Every structure is written in C-alpha cells, then in structure tokens.
Amino acid sequence: RFLRTSRWRRSGSFWPEKRKRTKRRLNRFRRNPFKAPTTTEVENEEIPAQQQASSPQFCLEDVHAALRELTATVTQQKIEVERQRTEIDKLKQQRQAEQVAFSASLLAEGEATVGPFPTHTTLIFKYVLTNVGSAYNPNTGIFTAPVKGLYHFEFHVGVHATNTAAVLVKNTNHIFAAYELQSDGFGTASQSASLLLEAGDTVFVRLWIQSKAFDNQNHHTTFSGSLLFSL
C-alpha cells in the first residue's frame, strides 16, 4: 500500500513536506507495523513547521504586550488611589474645620469684679469649658472664624449692686448691646446673635466704658458660640 517517495511527483513539481510525512509514517510502520500512530503524532505531522513556530508558546511579543498593558493599568490605578486618598484627607480637614463650638467664663475660680475702665475694653474669658476647633483664644478673648458660615453667639455679664453694659463686636462693628442696672443684689445683662462670618472674621465682647462685670465660682459672666453650618 505504501509507495516509494520517488513516486510523489505531479506535473513535474515536488512536494517536500508531504515527502517528509510519508517518510515518517514508513519508518514507524517498519519499526512496529501493528501500532497505530498516536493523535499527537498525527497532529504534529499535519501542522507545518512554520505554523508550529507561530503557535502561542512562541509568541513572546504578545506576552510582552500584555505585560505592558497590565503595568499601565496598575500604574493608572495607583494614581487613582493616590487621588482618592488626597480627596479623603481634604474632606477630613474640611470636616474638622466645620466642628466649631466654645463656651468660656470670666473666672475659673474665686470671686472678682472687673472694671470700671476709662475706655471700652475687651473681656477676656479665661476659664474655657469647651473649645472644639480651638477657634476661641482664651489669652485675648477673641473668637476667629475658621470657615465661612453662619455662627450663633451669646454672652452674659453678671452685675452686683451696680450697673453694667457690654456689646457684641464683629471685627470693628458693634452688633448687639446689653445693659443692666442693679441697685442691690445680683443681675445679668444678656444678648445673642446669629452672624454670617467669612473665614478670618473675629467676634468678641466689649465691656462698656465705666462699666463693671462680676463673676465667681457660679460663672455669671460667660461667652459662647458655635458654627450652625458652613457656606
């Protein structure tokens, strides 16, 4: 049934690849005429050498291209993660800046009357009960707005057997004043206001000229404020 390789000619043309396959089959048949060729052997015979060379195991360029694409994707993801981390830090800082509240009284302990003074004088509330955001300065008595927003303030000035007057000041502008005349015993002058502030605006309480402020361990003279919402 097997023909000699010299007979594989058609119209004067010679088929070298077919000759090789036929020769391999003859050699196998001579070694073991009763053994059928395996599937792998048949497939290898049917695949030309140039097609084997182009199979995936030899396509290193495709592997390198895939690695470059993967590297570019990972790099882009790192950039995105860093951007999100920066945005989160910014939101945290903004959140912390929006948490503002303070409350302070004139004296931490003991009993004292402040004034009278020959000019309007800023009251310094030294005993700080609350100072979330550290916007109130107990050394100067001045509150400085950390962010733009709507703030609410109130103050109370204690008086003992005399008169007192005080005013809430925004930057250099007098906002609301409070007055109390007490001929005997204790009294309190109080006032409050909601103010729209820009970041950096200041708010404080001024004791009116020739007025007095009384305070003791019960904290009659106080100054408080908080951020209602930012804008």
Automatic annotation (TrEMBL):
Superkingdom assignment: Eukaryota
InterPro entries (alphabetical): C1q_dom (IPR001073), Cerebellin_Synaptic_Org (IPR050822), Tumour_necrosis_fac-like_dom (IPR008983)
Stored Pfam families: C1q (PF00386)
Residue stretches making up the C1q domain: 95-231
Subcellular location: Secreted
Chain segments annotated as coiled-coil in the UniProt record: 67-101
Keywords on record: Coiled coil, Secreted, Signal
GO CC list: extracellular region
Protein's name according to its UniProt entry: C1q domain-containing protein
